[in-house]
Amino acid sequence: MQAIKPIALLLLLASSAMAQDRQALGIAAFDRGDYASAEKLLAEIDTPSAKAVLALTKAATGHCAEAEPVLAANYTDAKLRRLAGIALARCLIAAQRFDEAAQPLAKLEREFPDDPDILYENARLHLKAWNGAVERMFEKVPASFRVNQLSAEIFEIQGRYDEAVAEYRKAIRKSPDTLALHYRLGRALLLRSHEPEALSEARREFEAELNVNPYDAVAHYQIAQILEVQQQPDAAAKELERTLELSPDFPEALVALARYRSRGDNHVGAITLLERVVKLQPASESSWYALMVAYRNSGRNDDAVAAKQKLDALQQSTAGEFSDFLRRIGETPQP
């Protein structure tokens, strides 16, 4: 091998140093958002990191076709892998290649599960995909009952319950035997009002849902709730029992039926139900409170004390549902 002459070695070292300086300057330009300068500085540097940052620059300026093959590389540096994956996902989302975009984002979320930027891009992906699907529905099948149903669901989210009710009714006229439509209309009616007339109307819709699907436990539960408000507790209890036949681990139905049994001094029956609830939802403060009262009313004072201790521990813990609610609204749970 021919030896490198001193002058050539000096030139080589100088060239290498200049490339490193240009790379550093190019990365700094990228970091501050000066993409034009970054692209000029990095364009002729043949190192993996320079190529990667150049691809990030191209992606940031909308030249995704050139950037994608480089961004898809498997980088050993975690920071670079994160930036390249996010940039690649953004390019794919912009091109409405949603299935492809999901792949790098899924890999990134496994590696960086608490990264807000990655979670944001994942949310944006699903929102874009949703919007695209909605547009296709309205374009291709505008007269479909599914368009009315989707419109109703959107109105519900927006709190526009009158319009939601109207759209659900249109959907039902077009397809009266479709599962869940009567249930959704009943729920929208309840969201709109709890006046006696609204309760009766909603109950009729839940009953109509059961005509379509008699195995719908949630519809039975909703009817039970309405019957309770309408002061028909025995009829409500029968609906709750049917709910639990269909869905034995339905916590709200278990609690409601336990409350009915307690009113009839059937504390043993209430305790049986509430003990199931706290196994299903061990952090439910309201369920532990109800169980404590049921123990006390049945004369099981030691068990009532134990339930009270559990309730106190939950209220002092950040895991408790009431404590969590207080924290979310900015209040400090009291010890």
The CATH homology group name of the largest domain:
Tetratricopeptide repeat domain
CATH class value of the largest domain: Mainly Alpha
Structure summary, number of beta strands: 0
The percentage of residues in β strands lies in under 5%
At the fold tier of CATH, the topology name of the largest domain is: Serine Threonine Protein Phosphatase 5, Tetratricopeptide repeat
CATH hierarchy: architecture of the largest domain: Alpha Horseshoe
SSE class:
mainly alpha
Distance between the termini: 80 Å
- Radius of gyration over C-alpha positions, nearest whole angstrom: 31 Å
Question: What key phrases describe this protein's structure?
Answer:
mainly alpha, Serine Threonine Protein Phosphatase 5, Tetratricopeptide repeat, elongated, 77% helix, 3 domains, 335 residues, disordered C terminus
